[in-house]
Amino acid sequence: MKRNKELLHYLFINLDKTFLRKEYFKNDFLSFCLYYFPNEFTHPLALFHHEYIDDLQAMKNIFFVWFRECAKTMFLTYYYIYCIVYNKKKYIMHYNSEIEQAKSILLDLIIILQTNELLIHDFWHLYIPPEWRKQNEPTKKTIWEFMIDWNIKVQAMSIWKSPRWKKFLWRDWRTHRPDLVWFDDIDTHKNTKNPDLIESDIRFLTWEVFGWLNAFAQKIFLWNVINEDGRVPRLKKFFEWNKDFKIFWIPIRIQWKITWDRFVATDEEAMKKNKWITDDAYKFISLQTKRRDGSIWYNQNFNLIAYKNWQRIIKKSDIRYFYTLPKVYRVVFWIDPAFSEKTWTDAMWLTITAQEKYAWEIHKYILESIAFEDEEKDEDRFCNKVVDLYQKYKCSLIYIEQNNGWLILARMLKKRWLAVIVLNSEKDKVTRLREYQWEFERWLIKFNSDDSKVSKLENQLLAFPNDEHDDLVDSMVFSFKPFSWWEIRTF
Questions:
Q1: Hey, what CATH class is 5-250 in?
Q2: Considering only 35-49, 206-220, 410-424, which range has the smallest mean pLDDT?
């Protein structure tokens, strides 16, 4: 889009030219953003940013998968504001996998409408506060819907919440159905495990949601890459045959070239560019630093390479060993109890890990992984063995998983004056291990060089998640859990 630079400069510096500015920005979404939100534009935009902005302004349907920190959510938030102040849409719906996240976007919109002085100067107060609160008091933490003075409704939605019968009739005495819908991060680590659930969600979106929208509704999908199977890859194939959708698939590098100049390849290059920059918003981001967060995470979020269900998380090259312990450390036990009748034939695992705080990082040393089977699972015998190990390793804390007889075990260990905390696992085993992948790749986690103490654990780890036995891996991951370092016992 060609822009008159002299006219833009005139509109930017003359605050009193309200009417002319509003009329010009009505057909120039990028200039609208640059004027009303100048602090966001700290780096030159990439070509794909301009294409994305032009397609938003043209009210096209968009399926967008980008790398992290590329400002896709920022532009779409401002597009909501753009549609509101210019009355371009009547009924806006924002979908997210979690309703609280959808509500947070609506709260951002309200705060902008109530506090952006440039917007208020040109468009006056548009947001109608509940109970007629003052305009300058954005006190609510979350909000699921709100109305705008000239007949616009904005609503937060979660997946499986249908727009059926969602319509409103207000000052223009016309019935409005949703005419702008944003689907934000519908794929998550939690909901991409079950292919049947994925398929039912896609049917819900394409049949139920699409079927109850305005016939000319603008639909925008902003996604992240998670797994090889999910809503993202399936819907991408679905929309590739639909000429009404514009598909963006923008990784951090295209033909080995970084797609946005805000990112640089190495830490050294970032340090040179950031030498005299004090504001983080203006600093350049090193991809080398991002890669330290783990290759799987980096591939998902920057290279747009999905995690494959059969893909091993820890490689042999990530395994390192220690021969001596540091001078200052603390020892943590993790116990996976198996005292119930259903699990009586299962082994009960105890993993012992030493943790050392070094600068802002915590180095972990896996000392031993022990299996208790058959007669060894006798409650008194097991507790006596734990007491011996507790004293041998000078343990600081014992974690116990909340299942299979945990209450009995916790009480018996506490009676022996041991420090015990019971934990409940909320995430699945694969997700829990992937959170520590970057630490294995940076060699912050090391195994005991005595192979007899950790060999079974190491074999399970290298085969995970494709081995039928994975209890040792899970026990190891929980033993990495830190607690307040003022509680540390040093030796």
A1: alpha beta
A2: 410-424
Calculate the average pLDDT of the chain.
Answer: 86
pLDDT band at 432 (very low <50, low <70, confident <90, very high): confident
pLDDT tens digit sequence for 163-177: 887 777 766 677 888
Bridge-partner residues for 372, per DSSP?
Answer: 348
Token pair for residue 209? Answer: 């949601």
The CATH number that domain 316-487 falls under is 3.30.420.320
The pLDDT of residue 489? 40
Looking at the whole model, is its pTM more than 0.70? yes
Q: What is the 3-state secondary structure (H, E, C) of the chain?
A: CCCCHHHHHHHHHCCCCHHHHHHHHCCCHHHHHHHHCHHHCCCCCCHHHHHHHHHHHCCCEEEEEECCCCCHHHHHHHHHHHHHHCCCCCEEEEEECCHHHHHHHHHHHHHHHHHCHHHHHHHCCCECCHHHCCCCCCCCCCCCEEEECCCEEEEEEECCCCCCCCCEECCCCCEECCCEEEEECCCCCCCCCCHHHHHHHHHHHHHHHHHCCCCCCEEEEEECCCECCCHHHHHHHHHHCCCCEEEEEECCEECCEECCCCEECCHHHHHHHCCCCCCHHHCCEEHHHHHCCCHHHHHHHHHCCCECCCCCCCCHHHCCEECCCCCCCEEEEEEECCCCCCCCCCCEEEEEEEEEEECCEEEEEEEEEEEECHHHHCHHHHHHHHHHHHHHCCCCEEEEECCCCHHHHHHHHHHCCCCEEEECCCCCHHHHHHCCHHHHHCCCEEEECCHHHHHHHHHHHHHCCCCCCCHHHHHHHHCCCCCCHHHCCCC
Whether residue 156 contacts residue 92, with contact meaning beta carbons closer than 8 Å, is answered with no
pLDDT digits (tens, 9 = 90+) for 284-304: 999 999 988 888 888 988 999
Residue 242 confidence (pLDDT) above 70: yes
Q: Where in the chain is the domain with CATH 3.40.50.300?
A: 5-250
pLDDT grade for 345, boundaries at 50, 70 and 90: low
Tell me how far apart the alpha carbons of residues 169 and 191 are, in angstroms, rounded to a whole number: 36
